[in-house]
Specification:
Number of strands: 14
Structural class: alpha+beta
Helix content: 40-55%
Oligomer: single chain
Distance between the termini: 64 Å
């Protein structure tokens, strides 16, 4: 019972075959009785009519082919003493049977059906004989002719049964595929158009569960967004007050504690900003995908973060492909791709020490686009690399004031874009490599580069390597 189609076939196919065999047996039994009764009536009428004749009986001669193949009757006439007076086939020397009526006998290795008429007025006896093999063959032929439509319809019925079971199985599989496509960003009720009546209550219950789940996710997003908005104003006010107090803080231990307080406020501000970014990203997760120029998007993200790179005195550069005049198009939601690149580049800039280098490499390998963001930071211990994508997880001793949400946001955006995000430590020196690659080469197309993107890169003062 692990498969509806298999269960239907395993139960109904033997049932169909059993019905076919039973129909064949019943048909043979019915026609054997009907045809046998008809032949017996003919034999009886012939025997009685010959027995009532008062003059000598003359019968037509038969041969073996007519007797065995065509079922011709063999007539034997005996006198009072049991001697054969006349016979239509002398080769058959069947003796006179003692009692009138029908008899089934075996003689000389063959089966025969014999009718013995009542004795004549002269005391003689008439026997009418027919081949038993012919009668059996006639039964089979007549039963087969009647059963032929049933036998012809049986394979057709099995084929129709298999098709119906296949359609039902595909309908259930479609329901499963539609249910598997649901995620926290796109929860919709399953359609009921092609759902079998027996499965409809289950699908309705599942749709009700999906509705409650959708409301729970919406409430979670609203809570995160409301909490971030409510926290943003007081934290900003605290930051402004700290700016005003900076000049009044004396050197020494008070200045050290004041710096620690500023670092905590900055971290809280960054956490609130990341929470707002995450809530906006989840709210727009269902946006339709569109072709995005990967090169132009990279330059735009780098232009946005050039101020942070200048503030920390970090050399931020773009390493393009061998043919810089070509562009790569990737089909995804533009907001998700922008969020992915912003978070990865910003993460590299914040964890790279001042005076370091962050290279953004745009590659094309085996017809698939790839991006590598290489920094000269401290890297991440290999034993905690699998955990850095967890929400609110921060590398111990990182000291960059991170919120623990950036990489989680980046991975979610990469998954929605159909991209693969991996992290690994550099082998040549300390540092980290964040690699983003497309799963399919179909999303790449080449064309002319974007003049606007190149202009913005030059305007921002970035160095293209």
């Amino acid at each position: 019972m692990c498969s509806v189609r298999r269960a239907l076939m395993l139960w109904l196919v033997p049932l169909f075959l059993l019905v076919g065999i039973a129909s064949a047996a019943i048909s043979y039994w019915t026609y054997s009785r009907m045809v046998g009764a008809f032949l017996d009536d003919q034999m009886e009428e012939l025997g009685q009519s010959l027995a009532q004749q008062t003059r000598s009986i003359a019968v037509p001669k038969q041969d073996a082919d007519r007797v065995h193949k065509w079922g011709s009757y063999v007539v034997q006439v005996f006198d009072r003493d049991g001697a054969v007076q006349t016979t239509s086939w002398p080769q058959l020397r069947l003796p006179r049977l003692p009692s009138p009526g029908f008899h089934d006998i075996a003689f000389e290795g063959r089966d025969w059906r014999v009718f013995v008429a009542a004795p004549t007025a002269a005391g003689g006896t008439v026997q009418v004989i027919q081949s038993g093999a012919f009668r059996s063959q006639l039964y089979f032929e007549r039963a087969g002719a009647a059963l032929l439509p049933v036998l012809a319809l049986l394979p057709l019925s099995l084929f129709v049964l298999w098709g119906i079971a296949r359609m039902m199985s595909h309908a259930l599989q479609d329901i499963g595929r539609q249910a598997a496509r649901q995620d926290e960003h796109n929860i919709a009720e399953l359609p009921l158009e092609r759902v079998p009546q027996e499965i409809r209550p289950f699908v309705l219950s599942f749709n009700s569960l999906l509705g409650r789940l959708r409301e729970a996710f919406a409430a979670q997003r609203r809570f995160m967004q409301d909490a971030a908005h409510e926290l943003r104003t007081p934290i900003t006010a605290i930051g402004l007050q700290l700016e005003n107090l900076r000049g009044d803080v004396c050197n020494g231990e008070a200045a050290q504690r004041f710096a620690q307080l500023e670092a905590g406020v900055r971290r809280a501000q960054r956490l609130v900003d990341q929470m707002l970014k995450m809530s906006r990203q989840e709210a727009t997760a269902g946006d339709n995908a569109a072709p995005v120029d990967l090169q132009a998007q990279l330059r735009e993200s780098m232009n946005t973060l050039i101020a942070l790179a200048d503030q920390r005195n970090i050399d931020l550069g773009l390493v393009g492909p061998e043919k810089p005049a070509s562009s790569m198009m990737l089909r995804c939601a533009p907001g998700d791709l922008r969020s992915l690149l912003d978070n990865l580049i910003e993460n590299a800039l914040r964890y790279t020490p001042e005076g370091g280098v962050v290279d953004v490499r745009l590659l094309e390998e085996h017809g698939k686009p790839a991006i590598e963001i290489v920094d000269t930071g401290p890297g991440i211990p290999s034993e905690i690399l699998p955990r850095v994508f967890d929400r609110f997880f921060r590398v111990p001793g990182g000291g960059a004031g991170g919120s623990g949400l950036g990489l989680s946001i980046a991975r979610s955006a990469a998954e929605r874009c159909g991209l693969k995000l991996t992290l690994r430590n550099r082998q040549d020196r300390s540092g980290l490599i964040a690699r983003v690659e497309a799963a399919q080469p179909a999303g790449i197309s080449k064309g002319a580069s974007s003049p606007r993107a190149e202009g913005s890169l030059a305007h921002a003062g970035l160095r293209e390597r």
